[in-house]
Amino acid sequence: MCVSGVFANATAFWQVLLAGVLFLAMGNAAIPQMMTVARQWAGRQQNIDITSFNSRLRAAISFAWVGGPPLGYLLAAGGEFSRSFYFAAVCALVALIFAFKFIPDYSAKKSQNGREPAAAASLSFWLLGLAIMLGSTGNIMYSSALPLYSITELGFAEHTPGLFMGVVALLEIPIMLYGAKLAKKYSKVAMLAVAFCCAIVFYLGVFFATQVWHLIALQVLNGLFYGIFAGIGLTVLQDQLPERIGFTSAFYTNAIKLGVMCGAGATGVVAQFYSFRFATLGSMLAASLALGCLILFSYVKRNEQQLSQIQHPFVTVGKNT
Fold first, then answer.
1. pTM (2 decimals)?
2. What is the pLDDT of residues 119-153, one digit of tens each?
3. CB of 145 within 8 A of CB of 276?
4. Which DSSP string corresponds to 131-145?
């Protein structure tokens, strides 16, 4: 809310920079907090499937991305960008009031006898986090390059990037929700592997696409990738450290943001020396590395479980998700 107000009335770059560094950074911390509180609430309810709940939560964030950017451009039509920022400030104020009035406090309560220290993140956990970061990197490289690639290099009409993004947004949300049901029958890690395979084929297809209908048809693969990736990625991480929900939620959000930073920077570098078309090959490479990390995660996870069974033979080790 504060950063939107400053952006709407800023008259110098230093004001925008200061507000972005101070207020926007603190505001972004609300996302992992929201995921943590939501997960704690769901964990205390009966008959709630955590995977389905996380998928719906993530779908709500994706839905905001579907409506937010078009609405922002509509409000800014005519050059008055301040209207977009004022509207964003009003939305933040409504969210603030809603949070104070309806969201319960789930602060952790320490027992009188204390509690055991939380488990440390294992190597397999970090490999899984790296896979998620690389998946985000590939997605943002494609998204960043798509507008200029399709308009300036392929010669498509200016509205076509929005068409491609609208198609994938239309597909990814139902896939995200249905993926949670599939996760009850199939391994979540295997589903993530399928998602990365879809991403690899999609980015390769984009590299060779020359017609509008090519890219529209390819969005089915993109929807499968991101719907599964975003829908169950958080749940897979939380399954690794179920007693550290706050840590895994923040870790997931930061992995996605780190991927955005790496992807945006890599897109600029590739476009500078080659073209925006070759950024899709960078996306394919990132997705391939993510798949490799996921395979390595499964191998390391099995070894960790076997070692745990040897050291603690009378403790039942949960099966790999």
1. 0.75
2. 677 889 999 999 999 999 999 999 889 888 888 88
3. yes
4. HHHHHHHHHHHHHHH
